[in-house]
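Late entry, written up from scratch paper. The run itself happened at the end of the previous shift, but nothing got recorded in the book at the time, so transcribing now.
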Amino acid sequence: MAESANLNLVRQIYAAWERRDYVWTDWAHPEIDFEVVGGPAPGHWRGLAGMWEGWREILSAWDDWRVEEIEYRELDGERVLTLVGFGGRGKLSGMDAAALHGRGANLLYLHDGVVTRFVAYWDRERALADLGLERDGRIERQTNSIDIDEARAAAERLAEERH
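Output as recorded:
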């Protein structure tokens, strides 16, 4: 079965992040709706600058932040769910992210070839419950590692450029 354009785009986003390319934003709608559910920096932001501000708030709390695995699930013609494992160490607490629910999920809404809404869940079980889903065999795995310092620097550069 051929891969959908939406699933392909989501894979490209994560592949770019794996290459530490955090400046490529063609995938995001200019007025993207970005939300973080749970975790140390929950919030809601709008637009590309808002999304990068949100990422900067999240990433600034961590040292050695990384996404360790990604599983893709296409929910329908407009939504792709990525189940992620993450790690890192809290800057202030020194606590390892794995001890704080090191398994999250991202829900990406796509329309006309761009992501219009990105919801980052710190707690995978909450994401699955909110969506009325349970884990099943339809998940595909891919292992990635995303560097926190590279992501933080790119987010700061983009936020500055957009102001």
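Residues 25 and 54 are 15 Å apart (CA to CA).
(Scratch paper discarded after transcription.)
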